[in-house]
């Protein structure tokens, strides 16, 4: 008996090996691989940490099997450097044979990989980067983060309605900053306001001081700011050092500047700052309360909007696989994603079938103290906002 069993087992192993070598469909398709490329080190490491934790939490909560396939997440650190992102994407496609590329912590990193997604017909889920034109770089890109114009027009509307006639703008000098600068100016101008000064600051090693001196001298009604997630503390520190918090110039921004990872460490000087964005850890819904509790337990920090982009990106992948019954044809998966809608921790969201971009609520928020900690507390909502740039085309 023993020897027969041993023979059977050996035979099964040999057969399995032969099928694997031949790329036999039965065994090769048991696992669906997701290549998650993120800045895990360097100045944007907080984005990587947040998205990785959310993706792992999603798998832990929903299970590592979907539509009969085992899900394998392969996380790679691109350090926030486009050449590295491209090389990693190539390796994931060729060596690991991933069915999805995901992550993309900054706009240039998404641009670097878009041609590879097109060539290999692989769905590319943008969980972080937020320049409007990213989704136009490949028909295989689907986005679960946001766009800067989408979250900026709300703060321009709020400013116009709240006595801001003259504003200055300060943005990081690359795709999302330029998008934010234009959206803010167009919208405020249309409402009868005026942008009296525009400054772009380098993305890396920014020094805000010289510009803040100009703002202090010019005394506009408001200063509108966009800097990417992780940089906001540095900005706020220099804003206060220049005495601008006491100058009567109102600080308004997109929620990138006051993201949940850093807002509490900004201190009481940040109290009262008005921003617009699509996610706050303080969002009042049962889905978000469950998400924040589970994320905080797993990662020991508050989730920020990057985490939500990662969580919903995983949801999109899982639901698309359910729709294709586990088939991994890239074109079929992207088709399955188009028009999908669900309730995210951030509120109701959907994927626009035409643009493959996200449609979502944008909230107006004020920094307040809740149970002794600073939060972006939502007080009004623009519902189901598409990317206004593509909606206008
Ligand atoms: C981007 O590079 O597209 C980006 C990164 C971080 C943000 C917003 C946009 O907070």
Please specify the SSE layout and strand pairing.
Blueprint: H1 2-21, H2 25-28, E1 31-38, H3 45-62, E2 65-66, E3 69-77, H4 82-94, E4 100-103, H5 107-120, E5 124-126, E6 141-143, H6 148-161, E7 166-172, H7 175-190, E8 194-201, H8 209-218, E9 222-226, H9 232-241, E10 250-254, E11 274-277, H10 286-299, H11 305-323, H12 330-337, E12 341-344, E13 347-351, E14 358-370, E15 373-385, H13 388-391
Parallel strand pairs: 1-3, 1-4, 4-5, 5-6, 7-8, 7-9, 9-10, 10-11
Antiparallel strand pairs: 2-3, 11-14, 12-13, 13-14, 14-15
Helix pairs in contact: 3-10, 3-11, 4-5, 6-7, 11-12
P-hydroxybenzoic acid binds at residues 106-107, 128-131, 176, 228-229, 256.
Signal peptide: 1-28
Pfam families: Peripla_BP_6
InterPro entries: BCAA_transport (IPR051010), Leu-bd (IPR028081), Leu_Ile_Val-bd (IPR000709), Peripla_BP_I (IPR028082)
